[in-house]
Amino acid sequence: MTDSSPPAPRRRVLTSDDYFDGVVQGNLAMLARAFTLVESSATKHHAIAEDLLTRLMPHSGRGIRIGITGAPGAGKSTFIEALGLLLVQQRGLRVAVLAVDPSSGVTGGSILGDKTRMGRLAAEENAFIRPSPSAGTLGGVANKTRECMLVAEAAGFDVILVETVGVGQSETMVAEMTDCFLGLMLPGAGDELQGIKRGLLELLDVIAVNKADGKNAEAAALAARQYHNALDSLSGRQSTGVPSILTCSALTKTGIDAVWDAIESKCERRRESGAFDNRRKEQNLRWLWAIVEDQLRQTLHTHPGVQEICDDVENQVLAGTMPPAIGARRLMEVIIKT
Predict the structure, then answer these.
(1) Per residue in 121-159, pLDDT tens?
(2) Residue-wise over 278-291: b if at least 16 C-beta within 10 A, else e?
(3) What is the CA radius of gyration of the chain?
């Protein structure tokens, strides 16, 4: 017996107006679809995504962008949920979380699933969680994190929390796209300090030693003192300000308000001095050149002329008959000549 039911109606193709109206009106379903649009690598989506971002720019810029990093096990998701609940329930703010997950090597999708790890926050009306796979992007952020922050601000979110994959080799990317960079640390900093680069400590605006509860409380206080001592030995902090160092427990919800106060105070001082707006302008310039570099990389990998000689160049480099510098020049010359 054949099924005589009519086929399901096709989903209507959304226009730039549909996305724009939905985002600025705070429609969460449309916000999710706007994120999907700007994250898409499909060529057919590029034009409408660019038009949407251009139209949304005047509606953005009013939120606070906070990058949160920390080694695996530091409790980033638990902390972000505790902070998000504080901001939504007690401070009356709207919070968007851009949770950058490690990517699956098979499908490229997110592995950890932050919505399930932040169930209470995800259920809040004034909170929105967007997991995005890092997809191999350096710096512990997704390729379109900047665009997603702009969309979230245009949708009226007051605070944008960017959870990174963890302490990596290019955490400067996080600091370069947010207004405040928070490092979540663990008690027992003696060993951890050995593994943290001096450069990362110089980038952080706030250091919060998490899990400062029960038997860990004393170890957390000791870790905070060790971070104080480590930062005292660093030079060059005068221009960016010495980071605030606090202890907290995301599990027991203690000290979370003090961490937020430190973040807010840091941002407020920068607003008063003009550094906040200058930082945003500099970030936009870095964003410009990051896009240029990404597009050049894509052009290099998809250019027919490059593909034609790529295998030969790679084989000669592998065989040791061609220096890599000459191989790179040959590939670039193909693009320059076209």
Answers:
(1) 999 999 999 987 554 443 344 568 899 999 999 999 999
(2) eeeeebeeeeeeee
(3) 23
